[in-house]
Amino acid sequence: MRIRLFNGQTTDESCDVDSTLSQVKDTISTKHNIPRGSFHFRQTYPNTIFDEAKEKDTLRDLGLYPNATLVVTSNNPALLNPTPSPAPQTGGGDYITATVNYLYSWVTWFAGTTPPAPTNDPQEPFPSQSNRGKVHHVSSEKEYNQLKNTNDLVIVDISATWCGPCKKIAPYFEDLATKHRSVVFLHVDLDKFKNSLSDLKGINSVPTFLYFKNKRLVTTVKGAN
């Protein structure tokens, strides 16, 4: 069975004919670090959407054996066109769209793992409530460590000034920051901090997104370049 992921890449999976589609979903979720509740499968030919009810059926019953191609699809189609963010550009746009789709699915799930930020809490750690709802462009190593280590949920966008896809994805990252105030969103320039921030060690693809929960890196999502 062939699976097409959010980022456009494909993976071949060996599945027993009597495996349920739910079991296949578990495998893809675990193997590729995709939140299980953030996606469903669809088939382009014939055009079929496999909802939660169909996930209980076996591959044999669904006619997906011996050969089939399934597309991993976001459970929220509106994520591809967030307002007021611009639509992805043509020329590599499909890949950028897939990256944005994947990013939105992860952030939506990630933000749901903790209660929303309080609206008025004088004890709230830096950054203050007034600084939430936007992307923080890191200017120093000290600022990065302070922002990352004093908040439960942090997402870091690592990009570079020369990276075209980074510029196209940036408005979506800003859009996510306005929608998920329980998460702190940081932007880091790879060229400026690659020799001083340990979290950037080994990163050679941009944009790359780092997800931290309680100061621990829980996943890394590599983007379009």
From TrEMBL:
Transmembrane segments: none
Domain of life where this protein originates: Eukaryota
UniProt keyword annotations, A-Z: Disulfide bond, Electron transport, Transport
Keyword Disulfide bond found: yes
KW DNA damage (keyword) present: no
Residues in UBX domain copies: 1-72
Thioredoxin domain residues: 117-225
Task of the protein: Participates in various redox reactions through the reversible oxidation of its active center dithiol to a disulfide and catalyzes dithiol-disulfide exchange reactions.
Name the UniProt record assigns to this protein: Thioredoxin domain-containing protein
Organism: Arcella intermedia
